[in-house]
Amino acid sequence: MDYAIIAAGQGSRLSGDGEALPKPLVRLGDEPMIGRLVGILASADAGRISVIVNEQMADVASCLEALSVRFPLDVTIKSTGGSMESFYELSKSMDPAKDFCLMTVDTVFDPAEFRCFIEEFEADDSADGYMAVTDYVADEKPLYVGVTPGYEILGFLDSPVPGVRYVSGGIYALRPSALAILADCHEAGLSRMRDFQRALVAAGMRLKAWPFSKIIDVDHVGDLEDARRFLEDIKNETQCHF
């Protein structure tokens, strides 16, 4: 499995709360956020990791270059106008024939649940993609996910509706065919990941929602505090629940 990490955001809300470090270098436990995430992906049998950072993040690029890893670690340095544009730039260094998992650097989750998520996606030949979802809603602008009783994704909603329990967790495991849809979205001038997700559904891709117990999107100092408490509470073992 190949992985891709979007770490090109400005982190303006976090810095506005008084955090001096670039978001990817903020520490969760004993590691910077980006180093911890690369370590989790390494334990999930990463074949290659592609990361994008913005042009103001020389320290983040240096941190990545200093990591000792046994797989290719590609770093793209480019400022972009949004998360989907960052993904498009990342796709240029990704293997177009391999399954991949994409996430943002500020997504905090249970590593044991993540391993189950990846293992079940790799074993499910009938699915075009697995999308991490959670019923823990703390994001400022959550993307709600409509699912069937069998966890097939019906659509992505900007506002909650009755019966919709989950929000997107920002972790996407996809087949290589998704990259062609990404290119179409880029050609159309779209820049938001939720537009790409909707395009996947519109293209008829079979997407499955995979519930995590909690996923925290770190935007503010308060989110950092929640993430640190969450990681302290995680048990050593989590059983797959599908």
Question: Can you characterise this structure?
Answer:
With 242 residues, the protein is α/β, with parallel strands linked by helices. The chain has 8 helices and 13 strands. Strand 4, helix 3 and strand 5 form a beta-alpha-beta unit. Helix 4 crosses helix 6.
* Helix/strand class: alpha/beta
Classify the oligomer.
Answer: single chain
Q: Fraction of residues in helices?
A: 25-40%
Instruction: Indicate the radius of gyration in whole angstroms.
Output: 17 Å
Any key phrases for this structure?
single chain, 242 residues, alpha/beta, 9-stranded mixed β-sheet, globular
Overview in brief:
With 242 residues, the protein is α/β, with parallel strands linked by helices.
Which secondary structure elements does this structure contain, and how are they paired or packed?
Layout: E1 2-7, H1 12-16, E2 27-28, E3 31-32, H2 33-43, E4 48-53, H3 58-66, E5 73-77, H4 83-91, E6 100-104, E7 107-108, H5 111-123, E8 129-134, E9 144-147, E10 153-157, E11 166-174, H6 178-187, H7 193-202, E12 207-212, E13 216-217, H8 221-233
Parallel strand pairs: 1-4, 1-6, 4-5, 8-12
Antiparallel strand pairs: 2-3, 6-11, 7-13, 8-11, 9-10, 9-11
